[in-house]
Amino acid sequence: MIIGVDIGTSLTKAVVFDRSGVSIAQACTPSEVHHLPGGRVEQDLDQVVGTVATVVREVASAIDGPVTALALTGQGDGVWMRDEHGNAVRPAISWLDGRANALLAKWQAGGVMREVFRRTGSGMFPGCAAAVLSYLDEHEPEVLDRAAVAGYCVDGVVQRLTGEITVDVSDASLPFLDPATRHYDEKAIASCGLGHRRGLLAEPAPPRAVFHLNAHGAELLGLPSGLPVTAGPFDLPASAIGAGVREPGDGILTAGTTLACQVLTDSAEFDPEGEPAGMFLSTPNVAQYLRAMPAMVGTASIDWACKLLGTEVQQVGSLLAESVPGANGVRALPFLSASGERAPFVDAAARAQFSGLSLEHGRADIMRALCESIAYAARHCFEAAGLSGTLYACGGGVRSAEWTQIFADVLGRSIVIPSDPGVGARGAVLVAAESLGEPFDVELWASNSRTVEFVPENVDFYQRGYADYQASLAAAKGLWRL
């Protein structure tokens, strides 16, 4: 009985699966996300660790038999600063944070982003570790002086539970890891002016590393001391593994808070002169990587629109059905994040827009235009990532049959959707089982799925709509200002 825990930005989930990959117990509880002036977004490590304890205790009490391991995954990026005991030296800075917007614009203009991309294949954005650490080095150097490690959400929880200072190779990938060697590129670190803070970066753990609950972690979770714990990969690659992505060229669309588009590759090579955006993620398999294009906003855009339009998320499907492909002439760009966009291009000043509106349009047209624009953004990301095989999907967005159909039609591809929504936890559990030497049947786990087929006539329509989207994007870029 392996408990999989997915520590998301706003929700922590724990799931236990049977040997066929069907969930038999699950629990969830919200995490607090603090949105502060100036585009700052922070979280409290103690509160997040508390959510892990809550869901683990709940599912452990609901299963028959002893827990054999704990498999952790969760949100990536941002900076979670801790001392040698695992205590936060300041509130965690989320991947959503925008305080480093101006710094990133400076790096973009000065060639720093291009230099790091040439060395690691990963772009940077305001909420990535490099930008946040550089900002703190200038504005809060005393915090960095007190810290023992500048890590991420998952390894922050791991340190609390096991006492180990570590980081998974997937988290470490952005932006300083050389994917070919799986070691930090020292020149990439130096180019960001962080050579003197190099000691804050934990060395990546070896593939399929196993840790163990210490006395404090055991007491917190109500589980035996010494219980095996695995830590990663973080939620993007964990979701790919959990959904069934196995072959190079296969991809996964995650319609969650982030709109994450990933494609599996068996080559560490990348175009150093390409657009310096996205992530080149190492996976538990040393011969495989994920080319990730995680756009900043997915379902967060829908939440915003629902609040603005005075409707509920549960009504989104019916609103989409009330409009038609093309939203009766309403068009949108979906860049609603205060920190701009990070994939498939990087621009801290990127902002959303709606056009073509008149008094004849209603809520349904606005909602459909936004959902279509997010699907166009997904197509843009997958073109950059090199999708050529089977496409899988997960996340809260694909619970809407109407929005999922828009994705399939815009992408011109059938979409395979796992029947169990907890694919991040599924991926973490599959990795844990293999790490412990008792792997599950991955093909059996992947067989619990359904397929959404595209509608050919809609594909033709959206081909023209995508061309209009690209034209609108090109025109808008010249107007964006910080």
Automatic annotation (TrEMBL):
GO terms for molecular function: kinase activity. Gene3D superfamilies: 3.30.420.40. Residues 301-433 form the Carbohydrate kinase FGGY C-terminal domain. It comes from the Bacteria. Residues 1-242 form the Carbohydrate kinase FGGY N-terminal domain. It holds the Pfam family FGGY_C. Keywords: Carbohydrate metabolism, Kinase, Transferase, Xylose metabolism. InterPro entries: ATPase_NBD, Carb_kinase_FGGY, FGGY_C, FGGY_Carb_Kinase, FGGY_N. PANTHER family: SUGAR KINASE, XYLULOSE KINASE. Belongs to the FGGY kinase family. This is Carbohydrate kinase. It comes from Amycolatopsis acididurans. The lineage of its organism: Bacteria, Bacillati, Actinomycetota, Actinomycetes, Pseudonocardiales.
